[in-house]
Amino acid sequence: MIMQLADRRRLVAFGLREIGRRFYRRTAGLRLALTSSASGVPDRLIVAPTDLRAIDPFVAEEIAQGRFPLAGTSFDTEGYSPFEVEAPTEALAERLHSFAWLRHIRADRSAEACARARAITSSWMNNHGRRARGLAWRPHVAAERVIAWLSHSTIVLQGAEAGFYRRFMRGLTYQVRYLRRIVRGLPMDETRLRIRIALAMASVAMPTRNAFIRREGSRLDRELERQILPDGGHVSRNPRILLDLLLDLLPLRQTYINLGHDVPAKLIPTIDRMYPALRFFRHQDGDLALFNGATSTPASELMSVLRYDETAGQPFKSLPHMQYHRLSAEGATVIVDTGKPRSAELSRRSHAGCLAFEMSSGRHRFIVNCGAPKFASGNFRGLARSTAAHSTITINETSSSRLLRSPLCRSSILAGVNEVDVERWDDQHGGDWVRAVHDGYLKPFGYCHERSIGLSGKGNKIKGHERLLVPEEVKPPRAPVSAAARFHIHPAITMSREDRERVLLVAPDGEAWEFNAPGHAVEIEDDIFFADVSGMRASRQLVLHFSLPETSEIRWMLKRVE
């Protein structure tokens, strides 16, 4: 009852904060309309910052035909502006309003393509640019649109008449002022940081006073200090956010340098700190680990960021502030999540995957988490966030952390894992071990989950030991409950059963690992991989089913087949 009361208090406090933020944001448009005027609108842009994201000529060709292949689907406008017809999905509508698709027009850059981009932009200004409300003005959409308009202004403004140029500048200025007004009403998450990046970019790309440039740079510095941890990770604990932020921070840094402005004091040190954290999550196949909202990573975007990496060196063994551990030897890598969300506000994309791990070897990932779908319904997103979608143990098909699904809290994590104890050591044979215990199942079932994983010094053997413990101060549970240890296998890996306890995992290039669980039947079951580049994909998983308290310990092993 005490814990339930504490949960209610946290929920009420969180809800009140969110109500205050939403009221602040919703009144921002009204306050802006009362104070905004045509005065103070710059007459030109000074520079168009570089966009490091990948260009797809196919998308440019489709847009030329009136089709927008965005958010995992294709939207045929049938000759109309995309802002004059209803988009089929909310995700696609957000992608349209963000204008991130403008970068693909760079694959063409013909007068006709630029005129088409200009006409679509004009349509947006007519239909959505006069009042800051609705989906088009969601904070993350507006921030992305400002960055896109600045970065691809050469596309939109090529061959533009003076009248359109003035309208474009007036619309851009209005959006910048809107972001400036709503940023204080946002929680400390990546959207708030991206808005600070957009405002700093606008301050150097649009004519303004040096004092204003310094002020926006100082505000960006403070936000970087709040959100980028001392080990280079992001407070959300999502590896993919590091890449997304660097794709914006690197062009911003270069724009400051090219124009001769003083670079904000924290910007370059923060970028240098983020690179080792990004490399920490990079698997042997070059992709990023799938934890806490991470999804597929386009190889071209990752390489475009890593080419500017001047920090060099091997990845760290652990990120103590972001709360992850990495075991690596002779081409084999294991990454383990040993943390929990830092706050309810920062858990909106977090997963209930405490103690989950991923393993890669050679050029392939073998054991993964299901990852987050890029564009999918709320049901699939909820499944991807559950403990069962991670390579760890579940009890009674229940997640180790509880997700709130109310509209106000937007699927934040309220309760579950409160404490995680972690230990790291080397054994006498040169193996590297990490042991961690979490209490996410203590309240509902009376058990703590302890996981130990060790990688041999030769990188050819991985040992695992799972224990479900009953703390001394807790009354031992009497009723039996079911439990399962899941190991999600990457879709590229083929499996063949050797016997009841052993399964052979083979990569496309022939590298093979044998999974063995002595004394336990290893089941091969259907699965879904949410984070494939092409979208959701069928896959398989290895599952060890057992019952508590009858069986409270499981040992398993992965061994490379030479």
From TrEMBL:
Q: Where in the cell is it found?
A: Cell envelope
Q: Which Gene3D superfamilies match?
A: 2.70.98.70, Chondroitin AC/alginate lyase
* Coarse class of the protein's main subcellular location: other
Q: What positions does the domain Heparinase II/III-like C-terminal occupy?
A: 313-556
Q: Which domain of life is it from?
A: Bacteria
One of its Pfam families is Hepar_II_III_C
Can you name this protein? Heparinase
